[in-house]
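Look at one such:
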Amino acid sequence: MFIEWALTAALAASIVTYMVVNETLDRADTAIYDALMQLGQREPLDDIVIIAIDNHSLQTLGRWPWPRVLHSDLLNILAKAKPKAVAYDVLFVEPDANPQADLKLAAAMKAAGPVYLPLLIDVPGPNGAAALAIEPAGPLKLAAAGVGQVNLHFDRDGAARSVFIGESDGERRWLHLMELVRRGALGLAPPSAAELVPELRSDEALRDGRMLIPFAGPPGHFRTVSFVDVVRGEVPEAVFHNRLVLIGATGEGLGDRYPTPLTSETEVMSGVELQANILDALLTGRAISPAHTAWVLALALLPLAVLMAGLLRLRPRANMVLGLVLIAATLALSAALLIFLRVWAPPAAAIAGLALVYPIWSWRRLEAASAYMVDELDALAREPHILPQPALEAPPLADDVIGRQVALMQQAVRNMRDLRRFMSDTLDGLPDPTLVADADGGVLIANDTAERLFARLGQPTPVGRRMEEVIGVFNVPAAENGDDADGEVAAPDGATYHMRYRAFSDSTGAFTGWITRFTDITAMKTAARQREQVLELLSHDMRSPQASILALLAEDRGQGISQPTVQRVEGYARRTLALADNFVNLARAESERYALEVVNLSDILLDAIDDLWPQSRAKSIEVHAEGGDEEHLVMADRTLMTRALINLIDNAIKYSEPKTRIDCQVATLGEGPEAKVVCTVRDQGRGMSPSSLAHLFERFQRVIPAGGRQVSGVGLGLTFVQTVVLRHGGQITCDSVLDQGSCFTVTLPPADHDETARA
């Protein structure tokens, strides 16, 4: 790539250099210059006054050329006004037929003050000479304060935009007439003999000191009076007093009219007004110097070098912005040099170079990218396919580059889509929830089973989320980069899953992400747990009462069973029956399908209190219910939920002292998605220690009250309550303080509106 970049840079630099040296874009540069001139119009110097040989004067004084006596009369009138200087833009190179007329005009010139006359440089000169300088007639030359050239320089479009301060024929150097006027107006010394000697003798006319004209405005911008009005005395002398007076032709048909940057296609500017613009620029210091070719070339190559550096390092969009910024900066720099330093550095070559190099480089980059794409697609097409391939159309001819690229791309896209469809169908067909994540942990794919799993857990779709956030519902951390992991996790709904991480890599062996699978082992775990519970029941809790009965009967030896013995046997039997009942209820609560319906939790609470009325009355315990008059609807299995509340209130009665109080309350807290139905059972018993609370809901755990008082039970009641509550999507907690009582809180999700409507 670097070689192509270097070749592109060299080609662009060569093109820009050629355009700068040969002024290829001269038309574009002059258009920019003209636009800046339009923006830079200003008021001219008030010291410059033009006396125009206009159409009105020609109609009044007769056809051109006029007798020199009219010029003598004009200068005599100006002599009275005492101008600072007078310059004629009219050639007097031929002597008048009447010698007295030339002498009279010469005397008028001396009387009017410093009067400057133009000369004619005829190119080519006679006898093979490069040029011939024709000066004013003898007496006029002697009377003139200075003689200078008034030649203009025309660009390729025919417009006058510049002049040369010095011109020569190889023998003598002539300063521009307006330069002489400037020196005279400022009181400077006339040009020395050394200034009038050309630096280089040559057979060709030499020009030096090119100056671009900063036009003050369009034609008619300078103060102008008619020649005939001055001669008739109709113009006040104050108009000319201590001012610079330029006299020249403006009338139509006199030929001294030229197009300029500030003239329209149908408008021209007179030669004398051009001279006025030149004099205005020289006096105000606004003269514009064209930049040396070397500086113009540097201005053109510098932004090109910046853009080439950007093409090597930046993105295409950034390079486009950089190119536009460089074009704007080049224009701004050129304008700034013109406005502030009075130097004109043409920007067209620089802009053309910037505009040219971007498409060239883009073409080369596109060509390289296209070749790379074809090579890679060819290699991809030659690789063995995972899926069966359909019959393909005949490939395009080798010389059809675009057609071949399109065919290869279509084949690659079709293969990619088929492979993606195959992978999607495969994942969706898996029975286990499966997630695919990238190396950063973002989930890319979730099969249908995974979507259903997380929806059931109340989680949003895993796709687009972080893996640690997704599996956070199982309270396990995400795997480290490239690590495999296995383990059992528990879902909030009580289900158990075997979660397995497997890292996968790309074709280079680099780690790119994980595949995570969740296998539901809840049934297996439940079966194993129940099997162990049955073994435990058979080996201990159900065998021990029976062994006790046998021991008592053997001890009696048939002599009759006493009443205390009967009571003890009856107690063991009752304990056995209670244990069996609790175990059956717990097994049903854990494994059977619930018959869910919309029920009023307040009604269930009242039913439970009513069922336990004999027990509470026997201990003189007041059971108080709040919220029973209001509806607090939940989706529940009425039988199991009633049994669960009976267990809670029964425990409160058992562990409470006589003549105490138990408060039961049902309430709905929150609104909308945050709503929940809460049932609390609070007693005034002896309470529990933190160590007892930690194992409260475990199987066969019983709390021994203070004082060692025996309380009937087998330790499965609270386990049953917790199982029922959890399978209803709720939770149960217990707050207890020693000597202050305990409070059990059951929280259940409310029945939604659709379920309530169906009920």
